[in-house]
Design a protein that fits this description.
Shape: globular
Low-confidence stretches: none
Number of strands: 0
Distance between the termini: 15 Å
Keywords: Membrane, Transmembrane, Transmembrane helix
Strand content: under 5%
Largest sheet: none
Protein name: DUF3307 domain-containing protein
InterPro entries: Phage_phiKZ_Orf197 (IPR021737)
Number of helices: 6
Organism: Pelotomaculum isophthalicicum JI
Helix content: over 70%
Mean pLDDT: 95
Transmembrane segments: 42-69
Order of helices and strands: HHHHHH
Length: 112
């Protein structure tokens, strides 16, 4: 598998399998947001070891972007202003995941 494939595995595990109910309430509590982002980033870091690992720049970009995206303000802005889809609650999840995958793809291509 290539770097992005391993990142995708890490993303699925870190963003879904290892996210607890407490972490999912991250917009209320900065500690839960940072804990989730740390678990997520560490999971991706471990997942990509078979592909050669991540650079420090890649780790920082993945961690920081996850904070921004999971804080929800940017995603909610995008759904409201760009998609004009506030009435579709599922759109928040789809847009969130699209941006996460975009970050991983760009990171795999340009930062490793």
């Amino acid at each position: 598998m290539n770097m992005f494939s391993w990142m995708l595995v890490g993303h699925m595990v870190g963003d879904f399998l290892l996210q607890t109910g407490w972490m999912a309430k991250k917009t209320i509590n900065i500690t839960s947001l940072l804990t989730h982002c740390l678990v997520y980033t560490l999971t991706i870091y471990i997942a990509v070891l078979p592909a050669g690992g991540l650079s420090l720049k890649a780790i920082i970009v993945i961690f920081a972007s996850h904070i921004v995206l999971d804080h929800r303000k940017f995603v909610l802005f995008w759904v409201r202003r760009v998609n004009n889809a506030e009435s579709l609650p599922w759109m928040n999840i789809v847009i969130d995941q699209c941006f996460h995958l975009l970050v991983l793809a760009l990171t795999a291509q340009y930062l490793n």
